[in-house]
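Side project, low priority. Logging it here so it doesn't get lost.
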Amino acid sequence: MTNQIMTRWKLKYVRPALEQLESTHTPAELDQLIAAHIDPDPGGHGVSEAVTRERNVSVWALIGYLEAVEGDIEKLASGYCLPIDAARAAIAFYGRYRQAIQARLLINNPELVEVSD
């Protein structure tokens, strides 16, 4: 028998913020937000390194900060001096590329994952 390692993300505020955004915007509207505010592949390094166009802030950093501000999108935007739509775009982008963003987030914030066997 092999041991299986179980992981669980401690991101309890990101999912509700994403669900709220998806319930109030159509997929086309979210596409427009992303196109207007997110550079999805800066320097050819992949979607895990996506940044905001306005201030060059990493999406993974914004998602981590969203946890710190308990899912408050307005605090997320003001904390990074971003327009509210840029914060929304980062959350929408996370929703589209969750695994890549989570992998990048894990590199800088391993405390966001609970590991057990």
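Brief comment: Residues 13-109 form one domain.
Revisit when time allows.
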